[in-house]
Amino acid sequence: MTAEFVLSELQSVGSPEKAAHLSRFFKTGPGQYGEGDRFLGVVVPQTRSIAKANKAMPLDELQRLLDSPWHEARLCALLVLVYRFQDKKTPEAEREKMYRFYLKNTRRCNNWDLVDLSCRDIVGEYLVNRDRSVLYELAASDNLWEQRISIVCTWAFIHRSDFTDTLALAERLMTHKHDLMHKAVGWMLREVGKRDRDTLTDFLERYATQLPRTALRYAIEHYPEDRRQYFLKMK
C-alpha cells in the first residue's frame, strides 16, 4: 500500500467538472482561505472507500499523501488515520503515534473539511482522559486551521457532557476575525446546547453581546423563535 497507488485510485475516479466545482466551493482563488489548493474532483464517499481499503498504510506513505498538492490525497490520508484510530484492535501505543503524527501535520489540514472530518476522532478522542493544554497552544497559533482544530476537536468531550474546554476555547476564540472560526465556535456551542441547554444559555447570557452574529446564529439554531430573537436583540 503506497501513496502512489492511492493517488492513482483517486485519479481514476476524479472528474474535471467536480474539480472545478470543488475549487470554487473551497475558495481556492487569490486571497481566499483555500488559495492554491488543487482538486481531482473526487467526492467524499469515494475518498472514504479508498481510505478504508488502504487502512493499513504505513505512516511514511501517509506522510507522502499529506504532502501532496491534491486536496483529496490529504483527505484520504487523514481518513486512513481516523479509521485506524477507531479500530478497536489498534494498540494504544499506535494511537499515540497517530496522534503525534497528526499534530506534526496540522498545517497540512489546510481546509475546513480536512479539519472537521479528522480532528475530533484523533486529537479529541486521544485527549479525552489526558492533559488538554495542547488545545490552548493550537488556539494561540497564528494558523487558522490549527485554531479551528482546537475548538472542533472538543466535540469529542461534548459527547461525554464535558463542556469545560469547549466553553473556555469559545471565549478565547469568539472575537476571531475569520468567519470560519465564527462558524466553528457557534457550531460547538450549538452541540453543547444539544446536551445541556442551560449551560449554553448561561454562556450566552454572558457573551451574546460579544459573539459575532454568525456564531450566535449557529449557537441558537435549536432555540424556540422567541429565545432566538431575545439573544439576537442583545447584539
UniProtKB/TrEMBL annotation:
Identification of the protein by name: DNA alkylation repair enzyme
Organism the protein comes from: Parabacteroides merdae CL03T12C32
